[in-house]
Amino acid sequence: MDTRRPYLTMMIKPASAACNLRCDYCFYFDEADTRTEGIRPLMERSVVDAIIEKSLEAAKHCSFAFQGGEPSLAGLSFFEYFVDKVGRTKKEDSQVSYAFQTNGMLLDETWARFFTQHGFLVGVSLDGPPRLNNLHRKDREGKGSGRKVMQSISLLQKEGVEFNVLSVVTNELAQNIGVVYPYFVEHGLVYQQYIPCMDSFDGEKRFLSPTQYAQFLKDLFDLWFASFQSGKPVSVRFFDNLVGMLAGYPPEACDMAGVCSVQYVAESNGDVYPCDFFCLDSYLLGNITRDPIASLDARRSALRFIEDSSNSIDDCVPCPWKALCRGGCKRYRNEDGYRFCASMKSFFPYVINRLEMVANTLKSRT
Q1: In this structure, what DSSP letter does residue 252 have?
Q2: Which of the 8 DSSP states describes residue 254?
Q3: Residues whose CB falls within 8 Å of the CB of residue 30, separated by 6 or more in sequence, listed in order
Q4: Alpha-carbon gap, residue 72 to 95, rounded angstroms
Q5: Which residues are catalytic?
Q6: Which CATH superfamily groups domain 5-364?
Q7: Residue 280 near residue 35, CB atoms below 8 Å
Q8: pTM of whole model > 0.90?
Q9: What is the per-residue pLDDT across 247-305, written as a single tens digit (0 to 9) for each?
Q10: Going by C-beta distance under 8 Å and a sequence separation of 6 or more, which residues neighbour residue 121?
Q11: Which of 15, 90, 187, 206 has its CA 20 to 30 A from that of 358?
């Protein structure tokens, strides 16, 4: 009897929180800084072997997603070994998919061809044109990264790599989305994801206000809807999910579900956590080299990480937008509620008629 679960997502940090950039808003460097052991050494092959063997034993379809820090710091040979090990380990009916989130600074033709050969979905972090991107995304010497990232993107396009751009929404980006969006479209970057910037754990660094985020969403939606009407649609993950929800489908983005999903984050030393946003000492589930996945699951349940993650904010109960908003990601909630509650209450009335029109249009085509 096949006891494997249908699907398993393993997020892997082969270089831990190490990075060749020093982005001032980096949430993961902030997380690592709060741990007893912050940045760990590069992942050893014994950890790789344990991740692959236990994941493939547990699930029919395994999604391996590499993040950091900056995963390319582990070197291309690391990933060549990884995919080779998967090929030698997986069963005939196993399915495997790969994703890779990068700042793009180390990519070249060899990396691009590797991604194409093995079907990697690549996410490239980019906050708009170089001058805007460079406000927060600088290297260790304080120099901007934008031009190099655009060169890497050109290589990915040339080699036919499937990729999208991920932008962190700060007040500066929010105020300039009218520049960012056309710049992306002009350069063929039509798969876009925007993540609202997190405050630092100590609360001293605040990069995005709810008011600015609300206006950003409205301005971005106007641009996105105009693209749709012109017959040249652009994929914005947040809006795509909202359209899908209105059409009767569950959101594919975990932060839009209103409750956390089952996933695993493997640090470079093999320590496993339940979420990229909670790689903290208090949420340690175990270590993949010594603990079976069943034990990791049991520890997650003991922490009630998923069980207590559903939105229970009192103010959400009567809200007309609860079915679409769902209280946001757990990481953006505290005792005062959802950080961007006011943003959503401003955004949804502004867009709901047009969102429903897009959803109905797409439903009529299927």
Answers
A1: S
A2: G
A3: 198, 200, 201
A4: 24
A5: 276
A6: Aldolase class I (3.20.20.70)
A7: yes
A8: yes
A9: 999 999 999 998 999 999 999 999 999 999 999 999 999 999 999 999 999 999 999 99
A10: 97, 98, 99, 100, 162, 163, 164
A11: 187
